[in-house]
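Supplementary Methods. Inverse-folding protocol.

Structures were first reduced to a discrete structure-token string of length 211. This string, shown here, constituted the complete conditioning input.
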């Protein structure tokens, strides 16, 4: 049952993030069951998980509707991320081990390579690497409440396909900032890490404002 739920969840999530299920579109249990190759029972649980993450809304007499994001929603997401992720980076800096630094550097370097190579599917891989990098820092901050608060926020920009709208220089700047954040974390400097993370998040918001 758990595997079927995960399969249905991943199927819908991927289709939302790729724009196959656009904002305000209705998703039926039968449609998901057919797409994922599972029964409707695990689909219900998968849709509830996606609702908890803010990717879906349940509307009376309509069912599951893909959340539609406005410019105001986008501003709110980035402002919250700037506050919470800078705090998380400061906490994580005090808990870093050499193994943690190596893990984060590998993610940042992989993203940098994808940004330069631009091989087929690179934007999807950049999006996934970006989420893994930020999510890992949240985990290393050592606060389950912080992880919970940020779990849906880091997916929201992906759903708005942020990286697909970036210019090349924005992509390079963003991934270069990840490498800078790793250096600050390696120095175990909480203030530096927090400042870089805040600038990184607000820079992403600024890039979208000029589109």
């Amino acid at each position: 049952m758990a595997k079927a739920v995960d399969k249905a969840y991943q199927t819908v999530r991927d289709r939302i993030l790729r724009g196959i299920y656009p904002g305000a579109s209705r998703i039926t249990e039968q449609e998901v069951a057919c797409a994922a190759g599972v029964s409707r029972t695990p689909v219900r649980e998968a849709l509830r998980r996606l609702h908890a993450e803010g990717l879906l809304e349940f509307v009376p007499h309509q069912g599951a509707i893909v959340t539609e994001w406005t410019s105001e929603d986008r501003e709110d997401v980035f402002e919250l991320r700037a506050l919470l992720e800078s705090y998380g980076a400061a906490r994580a800096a005090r808990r870093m081990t050499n193994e943690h630094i190596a893990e984060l550097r590998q993610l940042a370097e992989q993203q940098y390579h994808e940004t330069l190579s631009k091989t087929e599917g690179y934007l999807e891989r950049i999006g996934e690497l970006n989420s893994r990098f930020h999510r890992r820092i949240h985990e290393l901050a050592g606060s389950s409440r912080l992880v919970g608060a940020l779990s849906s926020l880091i997916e929201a920009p992906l759903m708005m396909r942020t990286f697909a709208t970036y210019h090349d220089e924005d992509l390079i700047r963003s991934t270069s900032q990840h490498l800078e954040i790793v250096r600050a974390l390696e120095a175990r400097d909480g203030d530096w890490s927090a400042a870089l993370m805040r600038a990184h998040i607000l820079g992403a918001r600024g890039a979208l404002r000029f589109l």
